[in-house]
Amino acid sequence: MATTPRPLISRLSPYFLARLRQNSRLLGSASSEPRILSPESQLESPDDLHLTDSCVRRMKELQADEGGDKMLRLSIEAGGCSGFQYKFSLDDTLNDDDRLFEQDGIKVVVDKISHGFVKGATVDFVEELIRSAFQVLFDMTVILTYLIDHP
Fold first, then answer.
1. Most buried among 9, 120, 125, 132, by the most CB within 10 A?
2. How far, CA to CA in Å, does 140 sit from each of 1, 30, 36, 37, 111?
3. Would you kindly state where each structural domain of the chain is located, as residue ranges?
């Protein structure tokens, strides 16, 4: 009886996961806290967009200051070192081509084109000595684990 070969991603994923764990330990900064997704926030689908607790907390502060139900709009613009950059803004308008993601009452809106660049990402809010900003993080361990479990 002939067995069908496992897909290449399933065979290579354990190697990639081990390398990602090793690299994250080597490249991790002692001054920054680790940004690991909790099990309950892991990808239900590769299209999901997640928010960290610090992102939710900052958005609630901004909503209290603005006095409304503002959404965080994430979009992609041309520019930056890799040819594009992330742009964050507060918005109260939902367009026809927008994807809406919600977590703990906080809404994030991403247009259709930008969504293709941020699938499976996590939006975080980081406070450092010289700046504070929202940022987009990709946890490749979670993405590869999803690909292993859903060949």
1. 125
2. 36, 21, 11, 11, 23
3. 10-20+44-149
